[in-house]
Amino acid sequence: MSKKRKTRHVALDGLSWQPVVRTHAAGLDFDEGLLELEEVVGVQVEYHQTANGRVATFTVDDSKDIPTAVEKQARPQTTIASGEVTQTAFAERRTITAFDSNNLLPEWHSFSLHPQLYAALYSQKFVNPTPIQSLTIPKALGGCDVIGVAETGSGKTLAYGLPILHELLTSATSSPPPPKSRRPLRALILAPTRELALQVSAHLNTCLNHHDATTTADGEPQKQKRKTTSDRGREGGPSVPRSPPLVSVAAIVGGMSTQKQRRILERGVDVLVATPGRLWDILEEDDELAEDVKNLRYLVLDEADRMIEAGHFAQLDSILRLTRRQFNEVVTDPEFRSEHQPAPSNDASPWPAMQTFVFSATLSKELQQNLKKRWQPRGVKKNNGPASTLDDLLLRLDFRDSEPEIINISPEGGVVSTLKENRIECLATDKDVHLYHFLLRYPGRTLVFLSSIDGIRRLTPLLELLGLPTFPLHSQLEQRQRLKNLDCFKSQAHSILLATDIAARGLDIPSVSHVVHYQIPRTVDAYIHRNGRTARAQRRGFSLLICAPDERRVARALFGSLGRQVTDVEEMNVEHHLLDKLKRRLRVAKEIDAVQHRANKAIHEKKWMRVTADALDVELDSDYLSDNGADRSSRVRDSRLVRLRADLKELLSQPLVARGVSTRYITYGSRPVAPAILAGEYQEGMIGVEKTDASANAVPLKEKVVTNAVEFEEWTGIQHCTMSA
Ligand SMILES: Nc1ncnc2c1ncn2[C@@H]1O[C@H](COP(=O)(O)OP(=O)(O)OP(=O)(O)O)[C@@H](O)[C@H]1O
């Protein structure tokens, strides 16, 4: 006789969701666009078709004695923090208590960091601290507030991250948090974009969950195979005991399920990385978190200047007000204020006073000086209305330190020493062909910046039709798609990301070989940050500015603001004789795209008419429904498409041949090319075109001045122009 199963229905949030282990590497690992993965065990999911669509019912199988989240919370020792927790719990069992930094990481030894962090640095082969890390870490560990300005890709995340993790790890090791209560938030890191927030969270988690090495008795790291989600699956389900991590880091960003976010916060988080908009939404509902923010130990503004541009101003202002010692000012949202009366003073916090870190690659000197001067004793601050500029906002930061340390090691002229800049001047209508030529001539991971989303929408299908692996990134894409595209871009050695300035800040994508400014950036900061996606961490990088005549004034002003002249930037050598062939390919690709676009539009219109007619309960004209005319035109379109595609295929199959090279007699003649083809010295698909690095193919400046004196004059002739916004 079968035993009757006991079932009960519970709400989605009442289930015992558990974060799933995912592989880590420093940087973005978004699993094809998944922000966070959770699993639930012992629950049957049934789908029912209803008038409102498909509905899922979750039925807990009690025979398996699976606790719900509510039951779990009632048990001691089961609070789990952050999406990365199972890994963290796993690492915790191997918490490192000793590390021979004196011998293994001598350059880091004087910082006396927590052994866990040393082991993580060692396993990532970060043998030397970067300059900003060397200067910042001792100050931060000594309790100073720090304003750090250093070039892009110089390791600013760990400059503020290591001191925070060090203190949290040290205090967690000496006095573990009480098991039952939700652990209070200790550090808040605010970042302007979702991608950057997720990246910072992943970067810090890598330092906590170091998987590649474990220590032997003498503290010597020893290689160990990293566990992956699939390994775990093969082993037959979760094998890791789910104990709380020592320190948990989580990210809260827009575009992520709010239910998941609530669960993450309920489990308790030590370090929260967030975008201001989503964090403020949560703070308005979560009193406990708002209370935590008032008693923070660390506050970090990463890429503070961009936060203003990203339209987070009001929310950022409101969050910063919560962190101030005396809550006696007008809050942006009065309703919120009445609910959240101030904690009397930060002195009540069990932690020492809050430390504030402000980091960016671009904070004006003037602002840095103002920040230093602006400190006033508690309670005498003026100007309590809502902040309206970055200056205004940062001047209201409540540094507890009367002398915040300003560490500015940004390079003169804003250019990283390992970056090579080139430019191409051409008509606006020739930008496409120059971009196409560059992408073929210098394959690699290329990030192309455009000023408008329309431009990205136009170029993406063209480059795809031309056979180039192209991915778009802009704010009108769904978050999941944004992360997926980033993942695709970074997983292929030869790929192209067409992006707006949403990708200009902070993103640490491994080995971006080229940055192309398809349109001139609107600000100097944007130019610096765009360039900063390549030439990171002392690697070499290349940036190309494609400039049309009507952009020259802006270019001149931009370089003027950097204390340079645009003519200091070498012109790129272009194989002009190849451009005609490339233009032909582009023309056909554009035609295909236009025909396809018309076809899609017709289909959509028809569909829309049908849905609208159904909704209004009206009958469509029989002529309209008969499809005869439409069929005819779609047949014409289809056959045109077939023809055009065949033309493009033919054009793409024709090799691009350098001037003076005969493809009929490749073994002899004035330039026999066969030996070089066999030796792989030519660029693929380009016969007779030498394989070179983009940075090695510029027209030397002197030569340019002599041969093109008129053009040179045009670039320098007009003085005193101003940047347009
Ligand atoms: N000490 C180190 N040694 C070697 N590599 C490091 C070190 N510290 C950080 N890195 C690596 O350098 C890269 C850039 O670091 P990070 O993203 O923190 O730079 P950043 O200064 O914040 O850049 P941006 O201004 O563009 O945001 C990362 O891939 C990081 O893993």
Automatic annotation (TrEMBL):
Residue ranges annotated for the Helicase ATP-binding domain, each copy included: 137-381
Domain DEAD-box RNA helicase Q as annotated: residue spans: 106-134
GO biological process, one term: ribosome biogenesis
Places the protein is found: Nucleus
Matches recorded under PROSITE patterns: DEAD_ATP_HELICASE, HELICASE_ATP_BIND_1, HELICASE_CTER, Q_MOTIF
Domain Helicase C-terminal as annotated: residue spans: 434-580
InterPro entries listed in its UniProt record: DEAD/DEAH_box_helicase_dom, DEAD_box_RNA_helicase, Helicase_ATP-bd, Helicase_C-like, P-loop_NTPase, RNA-helicase_DEAD-box_CS, RNA_helicase_DEAD_Q_motif
GO cellular component: cytosol; nucleus
Family classification: Belongs to the DEAD box helicase family.
Protein name from the UniProt record: RNA helicase
Organism: Lactarius akahatsu
